[in-house]
């Protein structure tokens, strides 16, 4: 049976996570999160002008010893899935390979969001233990990649990343994804640079590399509001995706993120919410060198910080923290990928939810 990897609502109805989902739905504190986003480091080897975490970069990392201990804590807390993400570039930390091993050998699902420049240095662990690896590419050619994803010397490392992805495509046991963020930028001289014309070319390259999926997304601003784009750009992206549909098969998917769907529906940059507690915060959290936060949307926000994983165990932080410090109606008026999941949890509490299915298929709720 094929499942939509972005259907986060359906993922709530999996047997192994159901007890904690019910706890969250009823408004109770969960015993532990089901999914943890983990930033091993805030350092990155690229200098992307549009980086949403730009102001948070290069401000610290876990020691290799603490990072390994954190991985052991996640196992002991019965966390089901961990996403190594950033912040910075997760594969830039020399302790990440050990984390992959600890989590993978304990049977946790592991996702990795990476710029791809260091896949080769972590190839064995990624191939063996990663449930999926998503590479942020945002281009179909080296020239455009250099405009939007330059290294610190302003160079394009596109060819190196593509070569690394080919290595992983040959060796992987999990899925490999090619991520394309549709971007447009006004240069100081008045020129407009954009990558949207390369969606088809990038999808074709993803297919040629041996990726399992190609994902298109819209940009966020620094406050996580979806940046609106012109109808002509949206039409161009849709036309290219329609042509790329010929590439689809049982082994290659085209995926549209909820941000692009939001643009197509003209819902605007604000996503109002009329509930005051994020129940998903009982099921997911973000652990970074600068603190533990309610979620990735609030990375670096001191008002959404619930602890310090550098000095305290995650289990202790979870037992003593108040995950209700964020009020979605006030603090989360941006586009949230888990808004519908929160509404579904309310439905479960009211008895209008779906019946749990009889299989586990994807713990990344």
Automatic annotation (TrEMBL):
<dbReference type="InterPro" id="IPR007197">
    <property type="entry name" value="rSAM"/>
</dbReference>
<dbReference type="InterPro" id="IPR058240">
    <property type="entry name" value="rSAM_sf"/>
</dbReference>
<dbReference type="InterPro" id="IPR050377">
    <property type="entry name" value="Radical_SAM_PqqE_MftC-like"/>
</dbReference>
<keyword id="KW-0408">Iron</keyword>
<feature type="domain" description="Radical SAM core">
    <location>
        <begin position="30"/>
        <end position="260"/>
    </location>
</feature>
<keyword id="KW-0479">Metal-binding</keyword>
<keyword id="KW-0949">S-adenosyl-L-methionine</keyword>
<dbReference type="InterPro" id="IPR013785">
    <property type="entry name" value="Aldolase_TIM"/>
</dbReference>
<keyword id="KW-0411">Iron-sulfur</keyword>
<protein>
    <recommendedName>
        <fullName>Radical SAM core domain-containing protein</fullName>
    </recommendedName>
</protein>
<dbReference type="Pfam" id="PF04055">
    <property type="entry name" value="Radical_SAM"/>
</dbReference>
């Amino acid at each position: 049976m094929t499942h939509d990897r972005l259907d986060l609502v359906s993922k709530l109805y999996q047997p192994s996570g159901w007890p904690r989902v019910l706890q969250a739905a009823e408004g109770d504190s969960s015993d532990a999160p089901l999914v943890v986003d983990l930033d091993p480091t805030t350092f990155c080897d690229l200098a992307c002008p549009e980086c949403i975490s730009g102001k948070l970069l290069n401000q610290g990392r876990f020691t290799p010893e603490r990072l390994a201990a954190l991985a052991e804590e996640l196992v002991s807390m019965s966390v089901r899935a961990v996403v190594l993400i950033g912040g910075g570039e997760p594969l830039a930390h020399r302790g990440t390979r050990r984390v992959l091993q600890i989590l993978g050998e304990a049977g946790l699902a592991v996702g990795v969001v990476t710029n791809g420049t260091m896949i080769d240095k972590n190839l064995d662990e990624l191939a063996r233990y990663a449930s999926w690896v998503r590479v942020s590419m945002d281009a179909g050619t080296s020239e455009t990649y250099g405009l939007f994803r330059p290294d610190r010397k302003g160079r394009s490392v596109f060819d190196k990343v593509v070569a690394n992805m080919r290595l992983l495509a040959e060796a992987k046991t999990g899925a490999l994804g090619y991520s394309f963020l549709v971007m447009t930028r006004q240069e100081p001289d008045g020129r407009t640079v954009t990558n949207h014309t390369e969606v088809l070319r990038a999808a074709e390259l993803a297919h040629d590399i041996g990726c399992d999926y190609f994902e298109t997304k819209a940009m966020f601003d620094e406050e996580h509001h979806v940046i609106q784009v012109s109808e002509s750009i949206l039409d161009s992206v849709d036309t290219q995706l329609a042509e790329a549909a010929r590439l689809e098969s049982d082994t290659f998917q085209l995926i549209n993120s909820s941000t692009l769907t939001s643009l197509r529906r003209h819902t605007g940059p604000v996503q109002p919410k009329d509930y005051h507690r994020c129940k998903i915060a009982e099921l997911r959290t973000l652990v970074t060198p600068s603190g533990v936060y309610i979620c990735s949307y609030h990375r670096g926000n001191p008002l959404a910080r619930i602890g310090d994983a550098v000095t305290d165990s995650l289990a202790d932080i979870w037992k003593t923290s108040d995950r209700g410090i964020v009020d979605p109606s006030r603090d989360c008026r941006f586009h949230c990928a888990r808004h519908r999941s929160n509404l579904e949890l309310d439905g479960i509490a009211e008895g209008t939810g779906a019946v749990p299915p009889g299989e586990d298929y994807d713990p990344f709720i």
